[in-house]
Amino acid sequence: MTAAQSTKLTLLCLIVVTEMTLSYNNTRQTWSFILPDRESDLGSKCAVFSNYYCFSTYWTNYKHTERRETAYDITVFKQLIFPIYASINWFSFEAIAENRDVCCDHQAIVYGSRALPFGISPVEFLHIVTDYSVVQKSLYHVKARYDPFFCLNVIMGITYGYGAPQYKVQGGQVTANFMLPPTGVPPYRIKIFNRRRLDVELSFGWFKRNVICSDQPWICTV
To answer: What are the structural domains, with CATH classification, of the chain?
Structure first.
């Protein structure tokens, strides 16, 4: 092998290793929540069920296992999620208008489209949607609207996840700080989040302790 061929082989190896690393580093998992902002469509629907938050959806972009789908997966997941859906604030908003049960068609659609194709079994997905561990979960996406009365961006939806290089903000004013919509029961307390430190001040640990566990205290005891 000539020196030129050796150099070329080394470069090819480096490219393969780099691609493998990028593929691994680009794996994503996210958990999304809707806040009871009564001035927004989804927020007002969430407020029907909770004064604090509603779990919305899960998303991933990589194959977790090589498991194959079975004809019973959706049915099994419905049976698993039904006893606990209210305990994790996971409701079907469409069911309100259609006068249907708030579980478990919507939850099954999320499983069938966001988890099942990625090799995730019904039992594994149950563990995923009840995963409240704070390690490595970071702010991934914020959906907000600007409120001229408060002069703040009101957060309507928030997403946390693994593998997020940098969080993104959708909506609101670039120069305004952030607030959660009034949660809980009166008198309401409003906490302001610095727009330059949003990912630090609104960490998943803070959100879990102050929002999730305010409505579902059991989550902070397990």
So the answer is: 29-217 (3.90.730)
